[in-house]
Specification:
alpha+beta; 5-stranded mixed sheet; 9 helices; 49% helix; binds zinc ion
Length: 243
C-alpha cells in the first residue's frame, strides 16, 4: 500500500498549482500541507487503487456564517488508466483553526449500484451498463441508448448461459428476441425482458416504434429485469441453503 503524506502530495503537485482564492492569505500554505497530511487521500475514489494523488488546485471560500473557511482540493489520479479528478472538502474554523474533513467527491459518475449476484451472472452487463450511464451523464444521448441495448443483451444471454451452461454456443448465436422466446424463464423475467428488448431495439432503429416511451422507460424496464433475476436467484439460493 502506498503511504501518502501531505509532503508527498505537495511535492507531487505540478509547478503551476492553481490557487484560486481571495481568502488564501488567511490560510498559510502549511495549512493545506497539514490538512493533506492529516486526511490524505491515499485511494482514488474512482478506480479504488492506492495512489499518491496529484494536487491540481486549491479553492477556498467562507461558509454561510463566515465562521469557517471551506477548502476544496482538486486532485488528479496519477494512474494513466484512470486520470480522473476528485475533490476533497475540508473546513477550517476561523477562531480555533480546527480542521475537519467534510467529504470527498469524484467528478466521474460512480458505477451503478448492482448486486454481487448480477455481477456474478453477467460482469459484462455491469460494465456496459455503467458505461451507458456514464455516456448519458455526459449528455451523449445517442450513444447511451445503444449502450443500454447492448447491456440488456449481455444480461439476458449471460443469464440464460448461467441457467443452461451447455447451450452457451447456441445462446450466443441467437437473436436476443429469440433467446427470450425460446428458453423457459420465470414469467416476470420473460415479460419484462421482452418489453425491454422492444424499447431497446427502438434505440438503434431509424424510426421509433414506441413513440410514447423513452430512455427512462428503457432504464426502468432493464432495472425491473435485473430485479427479478436477482430475486429469482437469491430465492433459489436461500431455498437451497435453508431446507
Ligand atoms: Zn484513479
Amino acid at each position: 500500500m502506498v503511504v501518502t503524506t501531505g509532503h508527498d502530495i505537495i511535492n507531487n503537485a505540478p509547478e503551476e498549482l492553481l490557487v484560486n482564492s481571495e481568502l488564501y492569505d488567511e490560510l498559510e500554505f502549511n495549512d493545506v500541507e497539514y490538512i493533506t497530511k492529516e486526511y490524505g487521500q491515499d485511494k482514488c475514489p474512482v478506480c479504488n487503487f492506492s495512489i499518491k494523488p496529484i494536487l491540481l488546485m486549491v479553492n477556498t471560500r467562507f461558509d454561510d456564517s463566515f465562521s469557517k473557511v471551506i477548502i476544496s482540493l482538486v486532485y488528479k489520479c496519477p494512474r494513466s488508466e484512470c486520470s480522473e479528478l476528485f475533490v476533497l472538502y475540508y473546513e477550517v474554523d476561523r477562531e480555533t483553526y480546527q480542521h475537519k474533513k467534510l467529504g470527498c467527491a469524484s467528478i466521474k459518475p460512480k458505477h451503478a449500484m448492482i448486486s454481487d449476484k448480477i455481477q456474478e451472472i453477467s460482469g459484462n452487463f455491469v460494465l456496459i451498463y455503467s458505461e451507458a450511464i456514464e455516456a448519458e451523464s455526459l449528455g451523449l444521448k445517442n450513444i447511451c441508448g445503444p449502450g443500454y441495448r447492448k447491456a440488456l443483451e449481455f444480461l439476458i444471454k449471460d443469464y440464460l448461459i448461467y441457467l443452461h451452461p451447455d447451450e452457451e454456443a447456441s445462446i450466443k448465436r441467437k437473436f436476443l428476441g429469440n433467446c427470450i422466446n425460446d428458453y423457459e424463464l420465470p414469467p416476470n423475467i420473460k415479460e419484462m425482458a421482452k418489453r425491454a428488448t422492444w424499447l431497446a431495439n427502438d434505440e438503434t432503429h431509424y424510426e421509433r416504434k414506441w413513440g410514447d416511451k423513452d430512455l427512462e422507460d428503457l432504464k426502468t424496464l432493464i432495472n425491473i429485469v435485473v430485479y427479478w433475476i436477482m430475486m429469482e436467484e437469491l430465492t433459489k439460493e436461500y431455498q437451497k441453503s435453508m431446507k
